[in-house]
Amino acid sequence: MAKAHFGEGGLGLDAAEQGPCCVHFEGGGGYVSVMAGEGESKTTVDLETREWDYHVRQFMRAVA
Asked: pLDDT at position 39, please?
């Protein structure tokens, strides 16, 4: 979901780094880092951003 929202086809940010649990996007003078992890009964998502606060809040609503 993060790739679709922030990357190509979404906001168009560049996926600078990717791994099985995380992705880091850059562009527009800022960045968005998304890290996902599995808990006992649900998945947790940690987000860090600079300059993309509004769009990160939209993403948080979509995954909640």
From this structure: 81
Cβ contacts of residue 61 below 8 Å, gap of 6+?
none
Write out pLDDT tens, residues 28-47.
Answer: 999 999 999 998 888 899 99
Asked if 57 and 48 count as a contact pair (C-beta separation under 8 A), the reply is: no
The overall average pLDDT reported for the chain is 95
Domain ranges of the chain: 2-63
Q: Return the exposure string of 27-56: e unless at least 16 CB atoms fall within 10 Å of the residue's CB, then b.
A: beeebbbbebeeeeeeeeeebebeebeebb
Sign of the dihedral through C-alpha 28, 48, 60, 36: positive
Count of beta carbons in the 10 Å neighbourhood of residue 13: 22
